[in-house]
């Protein structure tokens, strides 16, 4: 396949690039806010854009059941449906299918049968269906359905998941797509070096538009996770985008960028906002705490988001403690902006050849 990714700078393994999609060019490395059900929680798409987001992620599993991918197609596709004119990546729903393990009735080489979380009905999910749903949604990047084993499974179970993930990827590689839709393969293998290597090599050989590292950040030791990421990215094609699935803490973002990852997503900024916590250079601030009752400073000095340029910690604490939606909204905006600024700074440092210094200074500030 013709590469849609252009490498424009490199500092060590860290990369800066351009990813071409049907709805615009993405500058990488890039943090992708998660809009699971076709919305980044509490935020209007224009607000997400104003925070600097270039691309958002939505979920195939949830949109298939509610409101239905065929309905979304009938209404003009996911972009029109959710009022977002930029690129969208859709996860295949594999993580949801396999993380809700109590609902699984049967996994076999053709797919998985489970009781869905909406009405409990027995549901059959296959690689071909995952591809067809995403074609209906019309996302810019469609992810393959993979088998996601939990941390701590036996090597035999992990080996079966690797084999199935490759077999399923073969079924999806040339499945029908919406116009201009890219498709990414996903490697599994957990933290087993041999199985991870096998999976990365097999998925890369299928020549998808991009390659994702899956099956990590699910409970394994962080140092081990980053070591596996280093090894996996080193084996991936340089001319294809690389996506680490599910990381969004500042330290983690810097680590995977250093390893050569181009794309990453996480619900962390909006999920922590709903608990009243803000991401800052002072660490996470729990705005429910009484220490902020008279604090007239912004959430983070130097941040240009609406929460920081217009409101004080004291006011946002008041909103959070009174259960006002505006409090969650403002912290969500700030948290997304904070991670995007961190990532944009990393990109600039890569282009300037100063990424190691940037990472070190950022980690020092975060741990001060």
Automatic annotation (TrEMBL):
> Where, if anywhere, are coiled coils annotated?
none
Query: Which Pfam family name is an example for this entry?
Result: TGT
Could you list this entry's UniProt keywords, alphabetically sorted. Glycosyltransferase, Transferase, tRNA processing
Q: Name one GO biological process term.
A: tRNA queuosine(34) biosynthetic process
Where does the UniProt annotation place the signal sequence? none
A GO CC term?
cytosol
Q: Which molecular-function annotations from GO does this UniProt entry contain? A: tRNA-guanosine(34) queuine transglycosylase activity
Q: Which InterPro entries match?
A: ArchSynthase1/Queuine_TRR, TGT, TGT-like_sf, tRNA_ribo_trans-like
What SUPFAM superfamilies does the database record attribute to this sequence? tRNA-guanine transglycosylase
Record-annotated tRNA-guanine(15) transglycosylase-like domain positions = 13-364
| PANTHER family in the record | QUEUINE TRNA-RIBOSYLTRANSFERASE
From the Swiss-Prot or TrEMBL record, give the protein name.
Answer: Unannotated protein
What organism does this protein naturally occur in?
freshwater metagenome
């Amino acid at each position: 396949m013709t590469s849609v990714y252009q490498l424009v700078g490199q500092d060590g393994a860290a990369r800066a690039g351009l990813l071409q999609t049907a709805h615009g060019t993405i500058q990488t490395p890039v943090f992708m806010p998660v809009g699971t059900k076709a919305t980044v929680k509490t935020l209007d798409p224009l607000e997400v854009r104003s925070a600097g987001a270039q691309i958002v992620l939505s979920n195939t599993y949830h949109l298939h059941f509610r409101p239905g991918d065929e309905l979304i197609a009938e209404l003009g596709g996911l972009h029109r449906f959710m009022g977002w004119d930029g690129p969208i990546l859709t996860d295949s729903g594999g993580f949801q299918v396999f993380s809700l393990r109590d609902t699984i009735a049967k996994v076999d080489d053709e797919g998985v049968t489970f009781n869905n979380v909406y009405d409990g009905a027995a549901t059959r999910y296959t690689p071909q269906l995952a591809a067809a749903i995403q074609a209906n949604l019309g996302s810019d990047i469609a992810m393959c359905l993979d088998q996601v084993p939990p941390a701590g499974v036996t090597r035999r179970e992990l080996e079966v998941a690797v084999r199935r993930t490759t077999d399923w990827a073969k079924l999806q590689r040339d499945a029908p797509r919406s116009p201009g839709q890219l498709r990414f393969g996903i490697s599994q293998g957990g933290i087993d070096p041999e199985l991870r290597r096998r999976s990365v090599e097999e998925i890369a050989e299928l020549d998808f538009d991009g390659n994702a590292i899956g099956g990590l950040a699910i409970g394994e030791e962080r140092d081990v996770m980053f070591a596996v990421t280093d090894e996996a990215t080193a084996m991936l094609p340089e001319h294809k985008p690389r996506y680490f699935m599910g990381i969004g803490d500042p330290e983690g973002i810097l680590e995977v960028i250093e390893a050569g990852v181009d794309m990453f997503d996480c619900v962390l900024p909006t999920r922590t906002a709903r608990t009243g916590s803000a991401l800052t250079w002072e660490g996470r601030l729990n705005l429910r705490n009484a220490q902020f009752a008279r604090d007239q400073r912004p959430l983070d000095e130097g941040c240009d988001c609406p929460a920081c340029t217009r409101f004080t910690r004291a006011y946002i604490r008041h909103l959070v403690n009174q259960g006002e939606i505006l409090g969650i909204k403002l912290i969500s905006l700030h948290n997304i902006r904070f991670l995007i600024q961190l990532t944009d700074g990393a990109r600039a440092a890569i282009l300037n050849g100063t990424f190691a210094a940037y990472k070190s200074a950022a980690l020092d500030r975060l741990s001060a």
